[in-house]
Amino acid sequence: MTRPARRTGRTRLAASSLAAAAALALAACAATPADDGRLTVLASFYPLQHVAEAVGGDRVVVTNLTPVGGEPHDLELAPAAVRTVGSADLVVYQSGFQPAVDRAVADARPGRVVDATAVLDAAPGASAAVGGHAEHDGHDHAEDDGHDHGGRDPHFWLDPTQLALLAPAVADALAEADPAGADGYRERADALATSLAGLDTAFTEGLRSCEHRTIVTSHAAFGHLAARYDLEQVSVAGLDPETEPSPARLREVAETVRLSGVTTIFFESSASAKVADVLAAEVGARTAALSPLESLSRAEADAGADYLSVMTANLAALRTGLGCA
Ligand SMILES: [Zn+2]
Question: How does strand 264-267 pair with strand 232-235?
């Protein structure tokens, strides 16, 4: 992510920023130390990084605490990474989703944070957001549930209209840290919201008329997406992808698949593909990849994929798998 240096008029560079820049470089080798006056922004996993980069533009350097291809749910942070949490100009995270990041924010006390959970809880119509206990769909059978999120479905970013709510919050925080860039932050936040609204329209129209409305997935990442586009998620495992599904749960899902006539089992990663393969073979269905966008894979990152392109691929996979007109 090397970008051309840009002079913003903020030339003062404290020793602590130098240390932070060095620590950032250690913590994530892809990061460019912000020794040129750009703001340092830490995002705790990919969709938040995407919003920070889109809104921050070339006035910020964004580092993702979850490495490319990494699993954000059970992220662990090295001490150097925890220190970067304290020294960043802005930390964008989601409380209740990654316990190590919650601890780092509590311990390192960054000067500015945007907490996606708080933003979504405060939004009008927040019952559909991260805090919406009621809409959790009950697939978290006790045996699947080694690590839940207090019953919340954390995967709000798979509903583009919810991800869009973060854009103005990030713009406000950046504008407070860097008033000279305020207009740019707000313009880019508006542009991101517009593109996410376009994606939402594409999903609404693309999934309007389908043979099937049941999406069978390995981990229960798609509850918000299903709620938004009138689909029903049946997940083999719970909200956390690491938990192994029980044989009883597998039998139960296989029965649901047979009864509903579902023809495609969606999987999310090479690890969960095994479960999907077993299930698909048992019921005579196909498998197809559906990204929960918790991280970009190495291949996606190398190909220059981003939130929009992966979601567009998800829409295509859903349309094929569900037989949409
Ligand atoms: Zn997840």
Answer: unpaired
